[in-house]
Amino acid sequence: MKFEIVLHRDGVTENVEFNYEKREADERPMALDVLLQAQATTLPDLAFRYGCRARNCGVCTIDVNDKPRIACRARVRDGDKLSPCATLPVLSDLVVRRDGIARQMQGRLPSGGGANDLNVEAPQAYHDLTACIECYACLDNCPMHARNFGDVKPTDAAADDLPDASQGYRWGNPFSLLKLERIRLDPITSQADKDAAVDNAVELGLDACVDCPGCKCGVGIDLKRQVVGSLLEAAKDRL
Ligand code: SF4
Ligand code: SF4
Ligand code: FES
Hints:
Layout: E1 2-9, E2 12-19, H1 31-40, E3 62-64, E4 67-69, E5 81-83, E6 90-92, E7 95-96, H2 99-103, H3 124-129, H4 143-146, H5 174-185, H6 191-203, H7 223-234
Parallel strand pairs: 1-5
Antiparallel strand pairs: 1-2, 3-4, 3-5, 6-7
Bound molecules: iron/sulfur cluster (SF4) (2 copies) and FE2/S2 (inorganic) cluster.
């Protein structure tokens, strides 16, 4: 399969042709597969971004035939053109500057606006919690989460003996608390919704945190202080 890859280097644009070798006869590659193979073969210094490879992080977005597509999930066809997002400045090849969008929000404090005033800057604590990649590593050794399974280790039990995951588990975990704390820190959340977030944390089993040594985050978020400690403080009259 032939593709056109648009390179940008030092202000110079060059369109190169790349022949993608299918790994299986009926393969329909994603745009990211093409870029990875190009880098592994004929274009070793090709610059592009990707993270989760599962349409979660968004950093792989490029233009395919001049329309933005999420490269890790965009199936491409013979002859397609892969180029950097045309809406942002290019740093190198298919890598664009994204920080101008995030920085745009800095310093725009609430101007008395309500839930519709999106042009507000969240506190740093909120941004800290957005680092969560939903890996669920923090569920390890969480007594609140373990309540869902009684004394059974989920991996040791037959599926029929486990609670029905499709209904959502009854008891919470560090990740669910992080989501609730993030709601509380979001400047566009109403006070009623902030209060409801604390209610939800209590309902999910926040009392389990009272005597717990704390949880550990896979990417280094300070769950003990920034999530659990904060929610315990907010709910202290009820625990
Ligand atoms: S502090 Fe709370 S959320 Fe963290 S591991 Fe303990 S029980 Fe789970
Ligand atoms: S370990 Fe950290 S990054 Fe992973 S789900 Fe838990 S809070 Fe999020
Ligand atoms: S690599 Fe994360 S969305 Fe594509």
